[in-house]
Amino acid sequence: MDLDHYSAELIQLAVREAVLNQVYSLKYVDKILLNWQKQNIQTKEDLQAYQKAHPRR
């Protein structure tokens, strides 16, 4: 959290995303967080807006 400056809420959402995809690896969670960082996703609201603009197939 301190090193990469991710909020606890964002980490929790990344863990939830990994579990929903049935992947139980911290490395996978880290990749999710890195991807979100590249998309400038910093809050739950940012994530919801991104997901609304980019629906999954």
Average of the residue pLDDT scores: 93
Strand content range: under 5%
**Which value, in Å, is the CA radius of gyration?**
11 Å
Largest sheet at a glance?
none
Could you state the order of secondary-structure elements as H and E?
HHH
Low-confidence segments, ≥5 residues, pLDDT <50? Answer: none
Number of strands: 0
* First-last Cα distance: 31 Å
Helical residues, percent: 55-70%
Q: What is the tally of helical segments?
A: 3
Structural class by helix and strand composition = mainly alpha
> Which overall shape is indicated by the principal axes computed on the Cα atoms?
globular
Task: Give a short synopsis of this structure.
By secondary structure, this protein is mostly helical.
What do you see in this structure?
By secondary structure, the protein is mainly alpha-helical. The protein is built from three helices and no strands. The radius of gyration is 11 Å and the shape is globular. The N and C termini lie far apart (31 Å). The model has no long low-confidence stretch (mean pLDDT 93).
